Amino acid sequence: MADTEPARKLQLDLNNEVFQKNWLTLDKLERNRVTDTLRKLRQLTWDRLHRDQGLKLEKIVSVKPPKGIDALYTLRITQSRRATAYRDANFLRFLTIAPDHDAAYGEKSLHRACRKRKRPP
């Protein structure tokens, strides 16, 4: 039988220093597009996020996640940019916003962002 736990909307963690720097240094139009995507994400369950064709959530298999993180993911945050994030219980914890598609899969930048993640209390 399928999982009987009621579907809960995912929660966002935007407190990573690298993510915030990436987001706030975008031009106004791109910042607004990121904000629109974040608003959309707040309305989704984890199942809907995995099935959403516009966001194109992808597991990063080319980079081993740091200790304490099960897997790293990318998702389309704007039409031209991808964000990296990981799941922590019901939270989607953002790490970076890449300047282009290929940069989202860069091992060095992902590990730097992971080191700067703020651990919840």
Question: Descriptors for this entry?
Answer:
five-stranded mixed beta sheet; YaeB-like fold; alpha+beta; 121 residues; 5 strands
Question: How would you describe this structure to a colleague?
Answer:
With 121 residues, the protein is of the alpha+beta class. The protein contains 4 helices and 5 strands, in the order βαααββββα. It has a 5-stranded mixed sheet with strand order 1-5-4-3-2. The chain starts with 10 loop residues before the first strand and ends in a 6-residue tail after the last helix. The mean pLDDT is 86.
Topology of this protein?
Blueprint: E1 11-13, H1 17-24, H2 28-42, H3 46-51, E2 58-59, E3 72-76, E4 82-88, E5 91-97, H4 107-115
Parallel strand pairs: 1-5
Antiparallel strand pairs: 2-3, 3-4, 4-5
Brief summary:
Helix content is 31%, strand content 20%.
Envelope shape: globular
Query: CATH homologous superfamily?
Result: RelE-like
Number of helices: 4
Biggest pleated-sheet summary: 5 strands, mixed
Number of strands: 5
Across the major sheet, the strand order is 1-5-4-3-2
Question: Which percent range fits the helix content?
Answer: 25-40%
CATH class: Alpha Beta
Euclidean distance between termini CA atoms: 35 Å
**CATH topology descriptor:** YaeB-like fold
Structural class: alpha+beta
